[in-house]
Each structure stands twice: as C-alpha cells, then as structure tokens.
Design goal:
This protein is of the alpha/beta class. It has two domains: 4-119 and 269-406, Rossmann fold; 135-260, no CATH class. It is built from twelve helices and nine strands. The chain has helices at 4-14, 45-48, 64-74, 88-95, 107-117, 122-143, 160-173, 176-189, 195-209, 244-264, 306-312, 331-349, and strands at 78-81, 99-104, 228-230, 235-237, 270-274, 286-291, 352-362, 376-386, 397-406. Strands 5-2-1-6-7-9-8 form a seven-stranded mixed beta sheet. The chain has a two-stranded antiparallel sheet with strand order 3-4. Strand 3 (228-230) and strand 4 (235-237) form a beta hairpin. It is globular. The protein starts with a helix and ends with a strand. The relative contact order is 0.15. The model is unreliable at 147-156 and 388-393 (pLDDT under 50). It binds S-adenosylmethionine. Residues 58, 60-62, 83, 85-86, 88, 103-106, 109, 276-278, 292, 294, 301, 320-322 line the site of S-adenosylmethionine.
Length: 407
C-alpha cells in the first residue's frame, strides 16, 4: 500500500542523514522530522544488538532504537507489547524508567524476555558462570575421546524417561559429542540460582551446534551430516561435531551482556505474561501499546526455536499463534489473521487509559490494519525503508509505524 509519492519521499529521506541522536527525541519532536531510514553505517549491527538484545537469535524482532524513539516521543507511564517476542519493548522501556507489560504465546520467547529484563546479583552470577565453566571444562577433558553416546553413571542424574521423549530430535539434529555436551550442561543447570539464564545459553549453543549448513541456520529442513560446499564461505565446510565450544563462548558472552545492561537497568517494573494476548488478564492504566504483530504467513514462532522446546521441555502452544507461516497468505488465512489481530487490540483497549496510543509496526502491503474496526483512530504514521532485517527478505522493504489513538 505504498503510492509513488510516499515511496519517493522515503527515497529522498534515505539520501539524507537519518536520526541517530536518539536522546534528542522528546514529546515536542514533530513526527514529520523523524527520518528512520538508517543505512548499515548509520546504525551498525553492534548498536542494534547492544547488551541483552543479542542474548539469543530471534527472527522478526524490531530494532531497539525504533522503540526508544517512540517511547521518548510519547513518554508513557505503562507501555504494553501484546506480541512481546524477544522482549525488545520491555528492555527499552526499562532502560528509560518506564513500566512495561508484555505477553507472548511462545514459552521460549517469554523465558528470553524474562532473562533479559531480570535483576541479577552480578557477583553471584559471576561465581555461577565461572563454576559452570570449570565443571564443563573438566567434563570436556575427561570425555573428549569418547565416541559413545551415553550419560555418565553416577555423574549425571537426568530424568532418563523424560530424556527418551527428546532423544529422537537430539539424535537426528546433533552429532554424538554435541548431544553429550548439551545434556551435561542441562544436567548442571539445576545447581544454580540463575537457571533461566543458563537455559538461554544452552539454547543458543544448541542452535549453533545443530547439524545444519552455515547458509541455512534459520530454516533447515534436513540435518547435514557430511562435509558440504558452503555457499556462505565459498569452500567445503564440515558439520559441527560438538557443542562445548559454543557453551563456553556463549556463557562468557551472556555474562558480559548482562553486566552491561545491569548498569543501565532501572527499577521500572517489567511484567512478562505467557499467554494468548486475545484473552490475558492485564493491569489497568496502559497508556501506550508498542508492538509488531507477527507478519502474516512468514514465520512459525515456535518452530524457529524447536531445539529449545525439545531440550528444555517447554510447553508448546503453537496452535494459538496468529498468522503462522504454515497457514500461508490465502484469503482465508488473511481473514483469520485480521480477526486475530483485531481481537488482540480490542481486548487490550479495555485496559487502556482515555486517549491511550497504539503504535503498531507493520508491513502493510495488504492493508490489513484498520483502526476504526478496533475502536481507535489514526493520528499519525511514519514510513521507513528497511535495509537490514534478519530472515528471508531481499530488496527494498518498507515498514510503517501506525500511530492510533483510542476513541
Ligand atoms: C513479530 S514478533 C514480535 C517481535 C518483537 N517485537 C521483538 O522485538 O522481539 C510476533 C510475536 O507474536 C507472538 N504471538 C503470535 N500469536 C500470539 C498470540 N495469540 N498471543 C500472544 N503472542 C502471540 C509470536 O510468538 C511472536 O513472538
């Protein structure tokens, strides 16, 4: 739904310097002056993935600076993200001292948001991090030669019955040593205070240690068990045969990222709810929604973290996802999608203050979002040309920030 004039305006803006002084945005900043058409050099990856924003890969998140800008512009007291995903809104709200609530249907996403926004005793966390690293190193030295897939008698007391249910997936997608490394780390987690954080490290390591090609980490269909010609590196690459190196690297990296965020973390309250945002119980007094709904028919949110569901034994609610890839983009899928999104907004509206705002980040090419259907009116709209997004997209890709007000 972009006419030529809008596209031309975006292209013109794209040739000018976009906004990078985010702290300069305040309630008086006119919407029309917001040039959000960042190139890679304006907003490099390391800034978009600063501190806890890179605790774990996640397809389809928005960049934290986009959230920051609109939180500074509208200064809410309580912001709600009904599709909280990896927790970008919640992290940014907390850093600005704003209370926030987020809902997500995916148990893994909820775990990730909680781990990012939790308060940590850094010296206790440091002790735990070095302790688990030491135990993993001792384990790795002892077992580097062993080719046998077995747990260590007297050493590991994993629930073997439960393990069997996950074995098929583990056996198929991980090399024997990688399976053992991951299971040993899983076994150690129960000895620590910050178990959820170690679960996120385990999941991130599992993702890297799968038997997949370097060029298809996002949507692998079959395990890659033999050396292969790698399109990413233009040479023959070997499938990963262990997880230990990822476990140690990500344990340290996660600790560093948590430390950095703990320096800017505020006392603002963060509430993460695991549930369907069409029906969850919310607090009253929400004066702003900031969210990006699932894109219709593009991503299966549970499926993208299948390894985490299998390893951590998380509850699967995938039938409640709105607009999953597996439903496609047919007319019937669009109708279901619109109903799902509308139900979420109608439900959230009941918990909002008079004149509360809803900011919805969408790719609106099918015109699926209509404020009048859900008790809002449009009071603004900012378009931007997205040049860098993770996932399947290629070429020019536009994104709109719809700005609605409750009526
Ligand atoms: C585009 S993503 C949001 C990403 C988020 N903005 C971020 O930066 O990480 C959409 C999210 O909606 C969630 N979702 C889908 N259907 C849902 C439902 N019925 N209730 C709550 N969340 C749902 C998905 O699990 C996914 O995490």
């Amino acid at each position: 739904m972009y006419d030529n004039a809008v596209a031309q305006k975006i292209v013109d803006q794209y040739n000018q310097k976009p906004l990078t002084d985010f702290a300069s945005v305040n309630t008086r900043t006119p919407l029309g002056t917001l040039n959000l058409n960042w190139r890679e050099s304006d907003l490099p990856e390391r800034q978009r993935t600063k501190h806890v924003h890179r605790l774990h890969p996640y397809l389809g998140k928005f960049i934290p600076q986009l959230v920051e800008i609109f939180l500074r512009k509208y200064k809410p007291s309580l912001v709600y993200d009904p599709f909280a995903g990896s927790g970008t809104t919640l992290v940014e709200a907390n850093a600005l001292g704003i209370n926030s609530v987020g809902t997500d249907i995916s148990a893994f996403n909820v775990l990730l948001s909680q781990v990012k926004t939790a308060e940590y005793d850094i010296s206790l966390l440091e002790k735990e991090v070095y302790d688990i690293l030491r135990r993993m190193e001792a384990y790795s030295k002892r077992n580097s030669d062993s080719k046998v897939i077995e747990l260590f008698p007297g050493d590991v007391d994993l629930d073997v019955e439960e393990l069997k249910t996950r074995k098929e997936y583990l056996g198929k997608w991980f090399a024997p040593k990688a399976q053992k490394d991951l299971l040993y780390y899983l076994h150690l987690i129960k000895d620590y205070t910050y178990q959820d954080l170690f679960k996120i490290i385990l999941s991130r390591s599992a993702r890297s240690a799968r038997l997949v090609t370097h060029f298809d980490l996002d949507f692998p269909k079959e395990p890659q068990t033999e050396p292969y010609f790698c399109r990413k590196h233009s040479r023959t690459c070997e499938p990963v045969d262990e997880a230990y190196k990822f476990l140690s690297r990500y344990t340290l990296d996660t600790f560093e990222r948590i430390k950095v965020f703990s320096k800017i973390r505020t006392e603002a309250k963060v509430t993460v709810i695991h549930g369907d945002s069409r029906e969850v119980k919310l607090p009253k007094g929400i004066d702003m929604i900031f969210t990006s709904p699932p894109y219709i028919g593009l991503i299966d949110y549970h499926d993208q973290h299948k390894y985490a569901y299998e390893l951590l034994g998380l509850q699967n609610n995938e039938t409640r996802e709105i607009g999953p890839a597996k439903n496609g983009q047919s007319a019937a899928a669009k109708k279901d999608y619109v109903k799902g999104i509308n139900d979420v907004l109608i439900h959230a509206r009941d918990f909002m203050t008079k004149n509360g705002k809803a900011l919805i980040v969408v790719n609106d090419k099918y015109g699926l979002y209509n404020p009048a259907d859900v008790g809002f009116k449009e009071v603004g709209r900012v378009e931007r040309h997205v040049n860098r997004r993770t996932g399947r997209r290629e070429g020019a890709f536009y994104e709109s920030i719809l700005i609605w007000q409750k009526v």
